[in-house]
Amino acid sequence: MPPASRAEAAQSSGPTLELLVHGVGGTTPQEMLGDPRTTRITGDATAAVYRRTEDVGAEQHPGRHRDGPVAEAYCWSNLTSGNGSRALWLLLLPFMVVNLAHWMRPSTRGHVRTVRLYGVLVRLVALSLTVLLTAAACEVALDLVAWQCAGTPACSTQRSWLGFLSARQDGWFAQPGRRLAVAALVPTALVGLLWYLSNRTWSAYESQRPLTWEEPAGTETDAEAGADEDTEAAAPTGAPLVRPALGRPGFWYGRRLVARLRAAHTAAGFLTVAAAVGTTAARHDRAAGSPVPAVAGHLVEAGLVLCGLVTVTVVCHRGRSERRLDNRVDRAVTTFLPGAALALLLCAVVHAGWSRPDWVSTGALPGETAFRALALGQGLLVVVLAAVALSLYRRAPEARTTLGGLGGPAVAMLACALGGVMTGGIAQRVADWLDGPGTPGMGAGADIEGPPVLLSWQASVIPVLLLLLVPPVLWLAVRTVRRARRTGPAIEAEYGEEHPQPGRTRQIARTRATAALTDAAPGILGLLSAATLLLGIGAVAGSWLTGEVPGLAADGTAPVVESLAETAQSTGSWLTGFGVILFVTWGRRAYRDVSARRTIGILWDVGTFWPRAAHPFAPPCYAERAVPDLSSRMCAWTGSTRGRLVISGHSQGSVLAAAAVWQLPDPARRRVALLTYGSPIERLYGRWFPAYFGRVPLEGLQRSVHCWRNLWRATDPIGGPVLIDEGPGGHEVDRGPLKDPLVYGRTVEHPLPEPVLGHSDYQADPVFAVERAALLERLGPVVPQQAGGDAEGRGGVAQGSAGRSSG
């Protein structure tokens, strides 16, 4: 910060505030503030700021709080937790994962067109996932149930609930086209549900307008730099200062973009259902003897192609500005596009329901080509995305970037794999259930043909993929054990123990070695993504070359290879069903059990931290509410009291704190110090999202904030150092690794064994209070105000921050 700014901050007159932000585990304001009596200062039941009841109105009496800062607690856990029904969001995991890939773009300067191309490719991959999910629902409802099982007496006889659709009833629904029209309600309802959830969560999150402020003079915005993409440095080297992406006024307000994408993906879902129904009927009409003119089918198909092209065009055009609050709503897109797609779906249903007395459903619907095209298209998009990411990375390489810039393509491949596995496994599971004791597609004993061959091949690669992961997992386990053994002597030397205890040494060493496993995640992900790509190519090739379900020999025999393939297919089908149940179970437990949330919550909160810029059906972004909350509170408090403020963030709360500081205008930022602990801001975010938390953005944050201190432990599996150079004043940001446990054995001051804290209870370390006091000293001394002066009546702070922020 410039010397003039520091001098201005040093002359501050007013109280001192510590704004506490908890981590992923969530906690209560009573626990954070260390007092059972708390009062909500501002906010609602979802997210609010609290302080001790005795500290309400503390700004009017600053002399009573000379011993330390007064504490406020910002509680945001209700943004990501709630009742058990939210666990169903885990079923949208592929959408969340592909949305992450959008933000994993390598850091670069300039090359605006390449940056835009990266965003377009990720959005196209996201669109393909929506089509894939809808196509899977069509495969189950239209093909397996309405076409195959209802059209086969042996299958429909065993399913009484299919009686009104059964061909053997000779009723109104006996014709295949009418059965398809009725079954189309299932995937249509699914698309409608996704639209409803996206619109509802938008009302709760994205519709909250963030703090508004004027762009400082001389600061270049993204539009002036020639980019409408969310790039932190789109201007060429030597251009005027470009505000970091997370500091732009419109970054946390994605109303327009989410509305456009929601309309496009909803239209894509409706068009997929319409294509499944309409093209089947049109194909029959082109055969000789159909009473329905073939031109009707041609008109429906032409409408589908035209509307599909418009949908892809809307997705390719991002339509968002971050340099200001973009309140525009593209009514022509958000209303006309899904409406037109729904109208085409109704036309396709009416066309399929036309009477065709001689139409009989045999075999399976020809969905094999569609699923192959989706699989090949996704693979091609990911490969091109990898080439674009490598091109960006090589122009501005950062050593800490995950997988050499290929983190985004690897995650996009993982999203496609999750979508393919869920599609293939669920379709195969439903087919097995409908076929009863038989095996779909397996000779004379089968009542139905089963799903497309490609889906069976995709289900069969799941066990193979799991087997491929066994060697690296074992290698990591062995490496962790060896690292723990090597660390033992260093730990005993660190504590200076004359009489070391082998058990205590092993406990500390094992905790440190296990915490280091987090840094091995990129390698595992890269291996998983590469194996998924190769196995996916093998599945497409196997289904195309053989045209058979894996495990079924051409001559009806079952050699060892075919037997193993059939076993892999069945195992993959069961594993998929088990995985869906496991996801829901874990999700329900994570939303209800704090300990479980601390275990898996960080992964989920990293995924939902980012705005929905690629997939509108992904779980909502809680930061679009939390970051404006924090920045508004800091700006309002410092402006009204002219006091000093330390924003203190633990774990994921430190990321929210940093993002909120980026959003502050310069006058407010001069009075704010940043204290982070157990922070993944560089270890996770800096490596995986280098364009937004890489070395350049973090160094910019250090220069822009008045002062910053980061505490970390070697036993912490999530937090770590930020690894940036000293600031202009010569003060380092990192302080660590802190001792954990505080003492090795029993002492007079600690007569009972001290626990290994790892990621939690940083405020229990004496270093925390020392570093917080140092930050306040660097902010400048406090000149007491007169009672009744310019103070915020409802704000305030409590002495110290006795509470503990859980992560």
From TrEMBL:
Annotated spans, Disordered: 220-239, 784-807
Keyword Transmembrane included in the entry's annotation: yes
Bias (Acidic residues) ranges: 221-232
Keyword check for Iron: no
InterPro entries referenced in this protein's UniProt entry, alphabetically: AB_hydrolase_fold
Transmembrane segments: 87-105, 117-137, 180-197, 263-282, 294-315, 336-354, 374-393, 405-427, 457-478, 520-545, 572-591
Keywords, sorted A to Z: Membrane, Transmembrane, Transmembrane helix
Protein's UniProt name: Integral membrane protein
